[in-house]
Amino acid sequence: MNRLQRIETALAQSLELQHLEVVDESHGHNVPDGAESHFKVVAVSEAFAGARAVQRHRMVNEILAPEFAGGMHALAIHVYTADEWHSRFQQAPMSPPCAGGDGAVEEDATEGVADAGGHEGERVQGAEQV
């Protein structure tokens, strides 16, 4: 089972999901082919009701802790309740392009958090959007 399948399985077993998308975005980053290092998760569950964004991200990060321990570098998390998902017309934000992985943090006008490789998103390992 590859990392994408393990992420799908872990989230499906831990949350009652109405919708789940897991995208391996590693190909858009400065990593070797087959690295399985950068992922995007879009999850819709009532388990997120009443929780702030940081609490929702912590829920997902706890579920996927073994993947981070096993070498996953970055995870963009987009989590919604069913009502929030429908109000977004069932679309999550697109991930921005990789900044090249030179170790410099790039500032951008877009919302999100950048890690040392310039990766932006709602959540990357080691930083959380508040």
Describe the structure.
This protein has 130 residues and is α+β, with helices and mostly antiparallel strands. The chain has one domain (3-99): GMP Synthetase, Chain A, domain 3 (2-Layer Sandwich), CATH 3.30.300.90. Helix content is 26%, strand content 24%. The protein has four helices and seven strands. It has a three-stranded mixed sheet with strand order 1-2-3. A two-stranded antiparallel sheet has the order 4-5. It is globular. The relative contact order is 0.18.
Feature tags:
GMP Synthetase, Chain A, domain 3, 4 helices, three-stranded mixed sheet, 130 residues, disordered C terminus, alpha+beta, 7 strands, two-stranded antiparallel sheet
> Regions with pLDDT < 50 over 5+ consecutive residues?
102-130
Classification by helices and strands: alpha+beta
Cα distance spanning the termini = 33 Å
Strand line-up across the major sheet: 1-2-3
Radius of gyration (CA) equals 14 Å
Q: N-to-C SSE series?
A: HEEHHEHEEEE
* Strand segment count: 7
CATH superfamily: BolA-like
Please report which band the strand proportion falls in: under 5%, 5-15%, 15-25%, 25-35%, 35-45% or over 45%: 15-25%
Average pLDDT, all residues: 78
**What's the number of domains?**
1
Report the CATH C-level class: Alpha Beta
Q: Helicity level, as a percent range? A: 25-40%
Broad shape: globular
Second rung of CATH, namely the architecture = 2-Layer Sandwich
* Major sheet summary line: 3 strands, mixed
What is the quaternary state of this protein? single chain
